[in-house]
Write a structure and sequence with these properties.
single chain; alpha+beta; 5-stranded antiparallel β-sheet; 4 helices; 2 domains
């Protein structure tokens, strides 16, 4: 092998090693960026889902289905949460969850905590929901008195069980 070929080979190997090192560095930087994006996506995606996992469903409060889409469905539910947050615990959690239509996997969730002893806000919420029921019945020509009578009868019949369930799920 001539001296010239030897120099070209050394130069080529040196350039190739530098190039390989640079490719490795770029690969590491891209992987770090990908990890950072994955972490940001995971944090954004799980907003509210952690609170859902820390809460318990209530037997007497059934999930209410909202209008969904071909790929997603929406649920409104009341849950009990004992996790302490901002110095409070034992709250009722009013949640809206977005789920995949086929797998029913929770994608996103948004929850509003209402302290169980906040009678004023709970009364206001109940009044607004009953107002919606009244409006809906009136618009559809249904008698609201029978519906309200049935609701109050059911609450009176199951009231003791509801209170016992809350006492079991929450720590007072």
């Amino acid at each position: 092998m001539s001296n010239y070929e030897s120099n070209v080979e050394e130069l080529f190997l040196e350039k190739f090693e530098k190039l390989a090192l640079r490719v490795e560095q770029l690969t590491d930087e891209i992987l770090k960026m990908k990890d950072k994006l994955d972490k940001n996506y995971k944090l954004n995606r799980t907003f509210g889902l952690k609170t859902i996992r820390n809460s318990e469903s209530l037997e007497f409060a059934k999930d209410i289905m909202g209008i969904g889409s071909p790929t997603k469905r929406y649920l409104l539910s009341l849950r009990a949460i004992t996790e302490e947050w901002k110095g409070r615990k034992n709250d009722i959690l009013l949640t809206i969850r977005q789920q995949e239509q086929e797998t029913h996997l929770d994608l996103k969730a948004l929850g509003i905590r209402i302290p169980i002893n906040d009678i004023k806000n709970i009364s206001l919420l109940a009044k607004e929901i009953l107002s919606l029921l009244y409006i809906s019945c009136d618009l559809h020509g249904t008698s609201i008195n029978e519906i309200l009578r049935d609701i109050i009868t059911e609450i009176n019949e199951n009231g003791y069980k509801m209170v016992q369930e809350i006492k079991q799920k929450m720590v007072f």
